[in-house]
Amino acid sequence: MTMPAWNAKELTVGQLAARSGVAVSALHFYERQGLLSSRRTSGNQRRYRRDSLRRVAFIRVSQRVGIPLAAIGEALRGLPDERTPTRADWETLSTTWRTELDQRITQLVRLRDDLSDCIGCGCLSLDTCVLSNPHDRLAAEGPGARRLECDTVPADCSPDSAPLQDCVAPPAQPDGPRTHRE
Ligand code: FES
């Protein structure tokens, strides 16, 4: 008779928490999200397969690099027979996620730079604040802060291609919102 998988070594939730370093409440949460599964004993206690340890490690490492739980769940569900990710699975997934991570880092760096322009300002102007109006009429010029203080924008006007002092300053607004060069 073939031994069922559940007859292999199993872990209680406490053991899984202790071995993985993840709180019991987090393990229950993962289970509610469908990332982890267990069986119930006749006494209604959870028992986890031993390979759940690797599954939990996969979830934690993925979360640590900023992968949302929904994407982690999708990746796990995409594995055949609900198997725990193998080394090859991790290689494939981490390569895909690396690309997404690079894109998010680029986006965050751009946001940080835009935020630097806002620090000490507070105008939240639809005309001058790139964070307040990220999809402004200059979007066709390209991403990022296409318009800083420029009222007219040369085709090549960007923080990288033209010094700010070369741009035409917007009309003065004595009582209006401040520009970020005040
Ligand atoms: S708050 Fe963003 S430029 Fe003023």
Account of the 3D structure:
InterPro entries: DNA-bd_dom_put_sf, MerR-type_HTH_dom, MerR_fam, Redox-sen_tscrpt-act_SoxR, Tscrpt_reg_MerR_DNA-bd. GO terms for molecular function: 2 iron, 2 sulfur cluster binding; DNA binding; DNA-binding transcription factor activity; metal ion binding. Pfam families: MerR, MerR-DNA-bind. The structure is a single chain. With 182 residues, this protein is mostly helical. The chain has a domain of 81 residues: Orthogonal Bundle (Multidrug-efflux Transporter Regulator, Chain: A, Domain 2). It has five helices and three strands, in the order βααββααα. The longest helix has 32 residues. The protein starts with 9 loop residues before the first strand and ends in a 64-residue tail after the last helix. Bound molecules: FE2/S2 (inorganic) cluster (FES). The site of FE2/S2 (inorganic) cluster has 12 residues, from helix 5.
